[in-house]
Amino acid sequence: MRLKLTYPPSEVQRPVLAEAVLKLGVLINILEATVNVNKGELIVSVEAEKGKLDKVIRFFQDNGVTVDKLTRILEIDSDKCMHCGACISPCPVGAFKLNSDLTLDFDEEKCIGCKICVTACPTRAIRLVT
Amino acid sequence: MSGRFRTVDEINAKIKRGDAVVLTADEFIETVESRGLKAAAKEVDVVTTGTFGAMCSSGAFLNFGHSEPPIKMWHCWLNDVPAYRGLAAVDVYIGATAMSETKGFEYGGGHVIEDLVSGKEIQLRADAYGTDCYPRKYLETVIILDDLNQAILLNPRNAYERYNAATNSTDDTLYTYMGTLLPRYGNVNYGGTGQLSPLYKDKNFETIGIGTRIFLGGGVGYVVGEGTQHSPQTQFGTIMVRGDLKQMKPQYLRGATFTGYGTSLYVGIGVPIPILNQKVAETAALKDEEIITNILDYGVPSRDRPLVRKVSYAELKSGKVTINNQSVPTSPLSSQKVAKEIAGILKRWIQEGSFFLSDRVEPLPTQREFKPLKVRKAELRVGDIMTPEVVTAKETDSVSAVAELLVRRGIDHLPIVDKNSKLVGIVTSWDLAKAVASKKKLLKQIMTRKVITSNRDEAVDVLAQKMARHNISGVPVVDRENHVIGIITTDDISKKVVGGGTR
């Protein structure tokens, strides 16, 4: 499950993520990070089953961090998509590929919402939902 | 080996009877693999091909008919996209890469053509100087495709036999007509459809010529001649094509935007290749593994982009290519799916007897020099306008001494060099201001080590583009050994280039 963690200015200085890893013994992979004095925004992927995941989310919330589940990031307009594949190679996480029938395949699980595909798409068929 | 198998007339007679043997290029390759070229060529009459890619050299002639009172259009816009207006009173040419004056890169001539074919309403606006025969000076109305007398797609350069693949060696993401190119060979984008490519399947131009009937944008079109920049001897042959927009379908004619480059038009083209002789059979059977193209470095903004390596379409289509021992992801920019669909549709048309082959009226040239444009006026190079007397410092110099130096000399950029005068970093007056504020003592604590540089022979336009991209105002000029030989600033460029020039 990918989560977007938004730290308010008051919590940016605290190692909340490190505490979560140590206290809950969960593996958290940072996919993208923007941290400065005004705010912190992390996109992380958490490998945990439902019960544990809920605990992780609660831990962040109790520590003042806003948590958004990234279940749906992109919307691909199937009328506009020509299956040209211009989005495939720029994607940093390899979320796109061509199926054997040459149609475009998008793996939502891999997507980190970096938007590079949105500008790479020649027909502007890709839209960021969140 | 130039055994003649059949003529176009004989094939058309078979199409009429309903017993012509037609295969797509993919199917023909399979047949050749299982039964051998000789048997396949003997049996198969026509091989169909397809491509669907961005073809920037495309556009349409439109005739609007006359308004009351009539106008001789001087300027004309379709959905705010300017159309070419040097043809009589109400004929215009809307080019695929013309861009909207209000929406810019997001909407252009290619989109106008797609919208016309989709049956959408288009805003038509025109002005004029008014004449005795055409008194009207301004016109604003709405048109649809059905209103037009003629709407003729006429594309000067389409369907390259193959195209160069693109990568990027620089440290920046580049936005090109070959799509988004990630830094440090991060990806490879390629165009064309390899073994389905219409012109590659007849790469000796044994059958394709003036008058060849083709699938164009979902309707029937014709090859009207060689395309511009036609270079068949290097397998970069092209065709000029013509078709009636009123027959076409928007799924095979799509407006497109390449971020940072501009607009274009995806054009669907399918050419039937009659298997007239052994030579055509051989080229029609060529596989992705045998069709080789170049991966070029689009990081070098030059006409002569360096070759990174040669590559087959099979490797490109696998999704990964190897560059410098790294596995690099690839993107086709042409839709392989739609190309395959087009080859299939053309096959069906021929089998159903609704599409007959045409004998060409003239062959296309098989030798054509593709000449570069010579710029005969001497143009400014960085060496012409740089300041050769450069103030430099060492990384062990103190912030306070250097700050004093910059103020005294009135400069903003200070290259940092080692004991051999080789560039190791740069410090700007802004860096120094921050250093003073944060009480840092030595230049090596504050200098930028990754320096954007120029060289004596770099074109000033190229440097200006680079400086804008990095949002910097000064660049050290270095020689091949990285010795600092000058410095150039935005001030130098604006004063010496824009302000009339000193040479």
Mean pLDDT, all residues of chain B: 94
| First-to-last CA distance of chain A | 15 Å
Oligomer: heterodimer
Q: Distance between termini of chain B?
A: 63 Å
Report the biggest beta sheet of chain B as strand number plus sense, adding barrel if it closes. 9 strands, antiparallel
C-alpha geometry of chain B: globular
Rounded mean pLDDT score of chain A: 90
Note the main attributes of this structure.
heterodimer; A: 130 residues; alpha+beta; Alpha-Beta Plaits; 4-stranded antiparallel β-sheet; 8 strands; 30% strand; elongated; B: 503 residues; CBS-domain; 3 domains; 13 helices
Question: How would the blueprint of this fold be written?
Answer:
The complex is a heterodimer of chains A (130) and B (503).
Chain A: E1 2-7, H1 16-24, E2 27-35, E3 40-47, H2 50-62, E4 66-69, E5 74-76, E6 96-98, E7 104-106, H3 116-120, E8 126-128
Antiparallel strand pairs in A: 1-3, 1-4, 2-3, 5-8, 6-7
Helix pairs in contact in A: 1-2
Chain B: H1 8-17, E1 22-24, H2 25-35, H3 37-43, E2 46-48, E3 51-54, E4 59-63, E5 75-78, E6 81-83, E7 91-95, E8 99-100, E9 104-108, H4 109-117, E10 122-127, E11 138-143, E12 150-158, E13 165-167, E14 174-176, E15 179-181, E16 188-190, E17 209-210, E18 213-216, E19 219-226, E20 239-244, E21 253-258, E22 262-270, E23 272-274, H5 278-284, E24 292-297, E25 307-312, H6 313-317, E26 320-323, E27 326-332, H7 336-352, E28 362-363, H8 382-385, H9 399-409, E29 413-417, E30 423-428, H10 429-437, H11 443-446, H12 460-470, E31 474-478, E32 484-489, H13 490-498
Parallel strand pairs in B: 1-2, 13-24, 16-27
Antiparallel strand pairs in B: 2-23, 3-22, 4-7, 4-12, 5-6, 5-10, 8-9, 10-11, 12-20, 14-15, 17-28, 18-19, 18-22, 19-20, 21-22, 24-25, 26-27, 29-30, 31-32
Helix pairs in contact in B: 2-3, 9-10
